[in-house]
Amino acid sequence: MVELVLVRHGESTANYNNTYTGWSDVPLTANGMYQARAAGARLARAGIQFGAVHTSMLKRAILTAYIIQDEIGQAYLPITKSWRLNERHYGALRGLNKDASRQLFGVKQVAQWRRSYIAEPPQLVTKAQERAYARWPESVVPRGESLADASARLLPYWVDHVAPALRAGQNQLIVAHGSTLRALIKYLEQISDADIDGVEVGNAEPIVYDLDDHLNIIKKTILHVD
Description:
Elements: E1 2-8, H1 13-17, H2 30-46, E2 52-55, H3 59-71, E3 79-81, H4 98-105, H5 107-115, H6 147-167, E4 172-176, H7 178-189, E5 207-211, E6 217-222
């Protein structure tokens, strides 16, 4: 048996302000840092020894990962940061208050953009030029993504980096974002396109999967806030 742990970052300033974020690089709030420490404490009590840590290229996830590593006494672990684990790109919606978007576009349309597997948000007219992604082709940075699009860029990372380590018997920790973790959970649990609508991932609540040698799920445990 091997263990995979998924953690969504702690509360960000965008979470607090109820705005769409996506690839915008917003920080954690003070509460978000507290949540990350609490998540690390719960994982420390679980006693899981990891082989590696994976996170996105966005600082809210990176700092959450660092805090958790410190709390579990495993700051020495290698940590890989990949754009493939970035949050879903919300296109032209990013920076917009979610309540305001419902007033602008209607509750039904916004619900489709946010929860549907295939619905795409309004696209950015031009891509933001960000130094963090300059080493890759321009096509890496999207103008907007559906959850299906985010899943398509995420799964190669799972196949190439996470799954082989798990098969080698090394427990893995992924610290990422609500939408990309929903996409991975959909894949792992074989959830239908329609049913993924009801899946939520709370900030800094570790999800622990016990997996067999073929990476089938034996048990799923969510380490909720005490």
